[in-house]
Amino acid sequence: MNRKKELIYLILILTLNFSCIDNKPLKTEVIKPELVNTLQTDTLKFTSGVRAIFQDSKGIYWLGSHNEGVCYFDGKTFKYLTTNDGLIDNQIRSIQEDKNGIIWIATARGVNSYNGNKLMSYSTEFNAPKSDWNATTGNLWFYAGEEDGINRFDGMNMNYLIFPKPKHIDPNNSFGVTGISTDKEERVWIATYSALYSYDGKVVDFFGHETLNLEDHEQIHIRSILADSKGRIWIGNNGIGVILKSGDSTIHFSEEQGKLIPKNEFNENTRTGQFTKNTGLQSVFTIEEDSEGNIWFGDRDSGAWKYNGKTLTNYTINDKLLKPMIWTIYKDNDNNLLFGMADGQVYIFNGKSFNKKF
After folding, report:
1. Is 340 exposed, middle or buried (0-12, 13-18, 19+ CB in 10 A)?
2. Under a CB-based contact definition with an 8 Å cutoff, are residues 102 and 111 in contact?
3. pLDDT category, 285, cuts 50, 70, 90?
4. CA distance 238 to 226
5. Is 324:301 a contact under the CB 8 Å cutoff?
6. H/E stretch holding 51
7. What is the pTM assigned to this prediction?
8. If residue 31 lies in a helix (H) or strand (E), which one and from where to where?
9. Which DSSP state fits 253?
10. Helix/strand/coil percent split, the chain, to 5
11. Taking 60 as the threshold, does the pLDDT of residue 237 lie above it?
């Protein structure tokens, strides 16, 4: 009888221990064994879209896909990392490198770091949000799900910071992060679907419908942000094109350029043009500045656009593409512009036209 009680007690202890392990999602380590053969190919195999491009300090290209994980290219082969290798999710939102050469990969469900041998996983802890941004430090910022905040890494922990919002905000609005850019004054600009935020290290500022000088029928649906070398803030929307903030002045850039669907074509279902296929600068998912100071826009439907300060020029990446959408534009270490496409291909601009990069 005593042996039976001891056995029951042992099973109970083991059950509680495993329960505690399952309830520690904040930080887990996935070590990649040396004998595991990472998938390698000679050509880029992504088909779901390239959402992120990054070239690290060693010259290695990193490509993040829409739902096939991430890969890195050493000049000869592509090596792939997916959830099978320890990624939190196969949808990649951004890639960056810290001062120690660690690669940081933001996914749709959390953040991974990779040192070349092992993956560390940091999931968003929504139950421990922080409203005081100044109580945290660090210059690594990440998407934090379709919630109301952003992740900031302080060197040890991933901190979930809540966005301050004005009263009477529509509770149905989403504040998931869609873009992050740092200006020359080290102010961080954070694009969300429903508003723009900035943080100068002391104060978090909110920019909504009124402060961006939008008309009543124009709804915010921000998909990209760029703080350029001149201090201007370019805001790309899905539906109402580009908003330009320069100092205290804010203008509707796409409208001034005559590149929006005419207002009389709007209806109640697509009154912002968000779901209407367009030929103008209207559904802007990415913005980048080239080495000469030109501003480039990637549109969902109409290809690439270059603004040289005076004129706006439209380019077709490849008229044979089944999906013309540009997910991302990236300037590499040699000042080349790379374009990540929705069909999984990457193109490079040669000054006049576009060629496949990989």
Report:
1. buried
2. no
3. very high
4. 15
5. yes
6. strand 50-55
7. 0.87
8. strand 27-31
9. H
10. 10, 40, 50
11. yes
Number of H helices, E strands in the chain: 2, 29
Six token digits for residue 238: 């899905």
- 3-state SS, one letter per residue, for 115-126: CCCEEEEEECCC
DSSP class of residue 291 equals: T
Residue carrying the six token digits 């409203």:
131
pLDDT in tens, 68-117: 999 999 999 999 999 999 999 999 999 999 999 999 999 999 999 999 98
Letter for the amino acid at 11? I
| Nearest alpha carbon to residue 316 among 327, 308, 305 | 305
Between strands 295-299 and 140-142, the pairing is unpaired
More confident residue, 277 or 69: 69
Q: Using one digit for the tens of pLDDT, what is the confidence trace for 39-81?
A: 888 899 999 999 999 999 999 999 999 999 999 999 999 999 9
d(CA 230, CA 256) in angstroms, rounded, equals 20
Query: In three state form, how does the secondary structure of 222-247 look?
Result: EEEEEECCCCCEEEEEECCCEEEEEC
* C-alpha to C-alpha distance for 17 and 67, rounded to whole angstroms: 34
What's the CA gap between 279 and 259, in Å, rounded? 8
Helices (H), the chain: 2-22, 253-256
Q: Are 107 and 16 in contact (CB under 8 A)?
A: no
Query: What are the tokens at 356?
Result: 């496949």
Per-residue pLDDT at 16 exceeds 80: no
Sequence-distant (≥ 6) Cβ neighbours of residue 342 within 8 angstroms: 49, 66, 323, 324, 325, 326, 327
Give φ, ψ of 55 to 5 degrees. Answer: -115, 125
Q: Report how far apart, in Å, the C-alpha atoms of 185 and of each of 29, 91, 237, 326 are.
A: 35, 31, 24, 29
